């Protein structure tokens, strides 16, 4: 039924013709609520279709438990990322301008476009790997990251469940290598598209067998094991894009035939947004 709805929508679009869009002049900075809504609609159409086409857990409903909570996280974190990008664009030259090297920027910007994108993915993921690992191995940081792991049903929306402090820290730290490398705008735009798609895909209820490709880039199976409560999988699979980092640093775990049995944290977190927002501080106080 979902596939029929998508086909009918596309057919109606082509029969009705294209919409005429007029440029809107923006005065001053903006957060981009319209893009957040469009991103939600796009993700909903694409990933619900994929999850119903090849679901890993066919019995899991689209409106599974706590979907409202994760939808709220989706909206809040998307708006927050818009704010962070505005701040980064304004303060990055002041804070990191001393570290910018004209020769590095010239070299990176002169590379073949796909090579620039791959370099961005590798450098950003190298930073994310060690930041992610720190969340798991430093006890007071785990209280923040545990919010993300509190999701007990994984699908395309579950990846949005991230504590505000982690959202701020992750985006700020990843922006550093991207700013210092000085890539072309086209490479940066492609990187953003890859990151946005893969971040949703790896949490989705999607069982497509990627085969050997699963060792080249992070897939749902790889990341589902990261969210597993099974003991051999705890504190493994930290990479967000490239599993080779986990292979290099000894944290790779992906059985060939099996998927995880259960997801979530060993100690159950509060099930409300405010309860999860306060959890890291209450945890430290106790």
What do these coordinates show?
The chain is mainly alpha-helical. It has one domain (65-285). Helices cover 60% and strands 0% of the residues. It is built from eleven helices and no strands. The protein has helices spanning 2-16, 33-53, 67-96, 102-110, 113-137, 139-149, 164-181, 185-201, 220-226, 244-249, 273-285. Helix 2 (33-53) crosses helix 3.
**How many strands appear in the DSSP assignment?**
0
Structural domain tally: 1
Radius of gyration: 20 Å
Low-pLDDT runs of 5+ residues are none
Task: Note the total helix count.
Answer: 11
Question: Structural class from helices and strands?
Answer: mainly alpha
Helix content range = 55-70%
Tell me the fraction of residues in β-strands, as a range: under 5%
Distance linking N and C termini? 50 Å
Shape: globular
Short description:
The chain is built from eleven helices and no strands. The chain has helices spanning 2-16, 33-53, 67-96, 102-110, 113-137, 139-149, 164-181, 185-201, 220-226, 244-249, 273-285.
